[in-house]
Design brief:
This protein has a single domain, classed as TIM Barrel, CATH 3.20.20.140. The protein is globular. The longest helix has 14 residues. The strands form two sheets. A nine-stranded mixed β-sheet has the order 9-8-7-6-5-4-3-10-11, sandwiched between helices. Strands 1-2 form a two-stranded antiparallel ribbon. It is an alpha/beta fold and 321 residues long. The two termini are 36 Å apart.
């Protein structure tokens, strides 16, 4: 039997007045006035640091810790719309992004290349789009493959985290900091264990929503109970509705899991639609700790607006390698 872990419990019965709704305008540095000087960066750091993880939570949430099972009973997909979210999980629009403080980095947690099979971004297009978006760290998470991620890690000027979006019985699971490909088609707990055996982190992309491979709250609680879930995606730029991201943010808030943000880019035009501003890191454990201080920046992107152009896609004969 798996031993139950204590987690922060969001008490049931919250009404609409207790929900922390995204503000019309977020108190962030004005990039036009601040420029790029040291004074601007110091001010940006102070602004981001002031956005405490639980600043938006009502006082009624400071209830005693509860077991996973009791929390799971109160935290259902339908009830998540009425739970509060951390202020840091409320996305700052891309065109209002604050100046990056010294020692912080912009990380896109969820990106695809032609290696995914359903994406078209070539190596050259990926590199150019990442440079234009001024990203510092990119997590290349092709579907069930890591070959292109390894290639780009050796070619790009930015840091690349080798990742993989793995199809499991319960939905898609991303492994980060991988050394080699994780086979798809296993139960999520088995896939998560394979990620951990490589020293990687487990991260659930676009949870709860209407996508075919979105992981449910029940499946995520099962991973939490086995201590196999490290973080979840609280903002996905490809999600069709704001409420889907909000429910994911509410789940992360209730469970205390770190939250990440990703463009989920399948086309070059989508790169730069979302990222997390977070302190720099030097290891997977440090990365996870830095996520707790991170601020989501993102604007939903309609995939239908992507520009079609003729392109030569490299051979996909060795995608699953």
């Amino acid at each position: 039997m798996v031993e139950e872990r204590a987690v922060s419990c969001v008490g049931p019965g919250l009404d609409a007045e207790q929900v922390a709704t995204p503000p019309a305008s977020v108190d962030t540095p004005d990039t036009k006035e601040m420029g790029r000087g040291a004074e601007s960066e110091d001010s940006a750091a102070q602004q981001l640091s002031s956005r405490q993880p639980d600043a938006s939570l009502p006082s009624s949430l400071s209830s005693p810790s509860a077991s996973i099972s009791s929390l799971a009973a109160s935290l259902t997909e339908s009830s998540l719309a009425h739970f509060p979210v951390r202020e840091r999980f409320v996305a700052i629009p891309v065109d209002e992004a604050p100046v990056l403080p010294v020692g912080w980095v912009k990380v896109d947690f969820h990106m695809h290349t032609y290696g995914s099979g359903d994406a078209v971004t070539t190596d050259d297009e990926f590199g150019a789009a990442v440079e234009e978006a001024d990203l510092d760290v990119v997590c290349i998470t092709d579907h069930n493959a890591v070959r292109v991620a390894h290639i780009l890690a050796a070619e790009l000027d930015v840091r690349v985290i080798i990742g993989e979006e793995i199809k499991t019985h319960e939905g898609e699971l991303i492994g980060l900091f991988l050394q080699e490909r994780v086979a798809f088609g296993y139960p999520s707990a088995v896939a998560a264990s394979m990620v951990r055996e490589q020293g990687g982190l487990t991260y659930v992309p676009h949870p709860i929503g209407p996508r075919n491979y979105a992981m449910s709250t029940e499946a995520m609680f099962a991973l939490i109970e086995e201590d196999l879930l490290d973080a979840i995606e609280v903002f996905n730029a490809r999600n069709s509705l704001d409420v889907i991201n909000r429910k994911a943010a509410a789940f992360a808030t209730a469970t205390g899991l770190p939250g990440g943000a990703g463009s989920d880019a399948h086309y070059p035009e989508e790169i730069g639609a979302a990222w997390l501003i977070m302190p720099d890191f030097d290891s997977p454990d440090d990365f996870l700790e830095s996520m707790q201080e991170g601020q989501v920046v993102g604007t939903r992107h309609d995939p239908k607006m992507s520009v079609w152009r003729p392109r030569i896609i490299p051979s996909s004969s060795a995608l699953f390698s």
